[in-house]
Amino acid sequence: MLFRGLLFYVMLFFIARAVWRLLQGIIQGATSSSSSSGARATSGQRAAATPPIMKLTRDPMCGTFVVPGKAVEFVRGRETLYFCSDACRRRYLEKA
User: What is the DSSP letter of 96?
Assistant: First the structure.
């Protein structure tokens, strides 16, 4: 009988803890903008976990936004143009 009572209170403790954590998650999600990864983090960790902002440039031919480090470059004087592909760069050079 004592063993059954002890198991009952242990089970009750875990159920109450699960419900409490569920409510905390709902409240945290409703009051703050949570990260897309879904990881639990404090506000200080959230700021450090955000990825650095990458500057995007627009392809002058098709209008696609590209990352300058991974784009096809064309340098003319002091101006550098970035293209999404060799085909866009060729079309640009044909029109110019």
Answer: -
Residue with tokens 């998650």: 25
CA distance linking residue 71 with residue 85, whole number of Å:
7
Inter-CA distances, 17 with 25, 28, 47, 76, 85, Å: 12, 16, 28, 65, 55
Q: What are the residues facing 79 on neighbouring strands?
A: 76
How does DSSP assign 24-91, residue by residue? Answer: HHHHHHHHS---TT-----HHHHHHHSPPPPP-EE-TTT--EE-GGGSEEEEETTEEEEESSHHHHHH
Residue 82 neighbours by CB distance under 10 Å? 22
- Please write the tens of the pLDDT for every residue from 7-49: 999 999 999 999 999 999 999 888 876 454 555 555 555 556 6
In angstroms, rounded to a whole number, what is the distance separating the alpha carbons of residues 11 and 3? 12
C-beta neighbour count of 58 within 10 angstroms: 13
